[in-house]
Amino acid sequence: MSALTIYADNAPEQGWLYTDFTDVKDQLDAIGVQFERWSANGELPADASNEAIISAYEDSIARLKQQYGFQSVDVISLRPDHPEKAAFRQKFLAEHTHSDFEVRFFIEGSGLFYLHVGDKVYAVLCEQGDLISVPANTTHWFDMGENPNFKCIRLFTTPEGWVAEFTGSDIAKNFPTYDQYVAVL
Q: Which phi and psi (to 5°) does residue 116 adopt?
């Protein structure tokens, strides 16, 4: 189940939870964040190649490419047995921005985006079928949990791909981790 919790940025112990897709989408639309549900053009086997995955979502990908000028598309995945999972998690946990959109479509698994907009923090739990597009220069961080398990399509407008500008803030340490967040849903 996708979920959104909106916190005051100085009150991580209390937030407003939304679990209805339309409510989540409406709240995110209000801050310029695109949130959609996608379906594959057909059945995908568990061992589908990256090319087959991209092909299965080609209509939705083509629409976003047309809308935003995305130049490249790839598929990433991280599993609980990855030897560098802790290092990857730490990299994304630090608050940062990008000069490009951060677009993720969850083919499998889940992850938790935290968007720091004004004096609020929006915790967005994305799961299989969810697309989130975080606008350029939006302050955020991402938590994949202690045992990450996800596969995502990423879209980029620049050939460099994921390039972060870290804010130096330790705000992420004040909010529930992915594991804490999903434990209470």
A: -100, 100
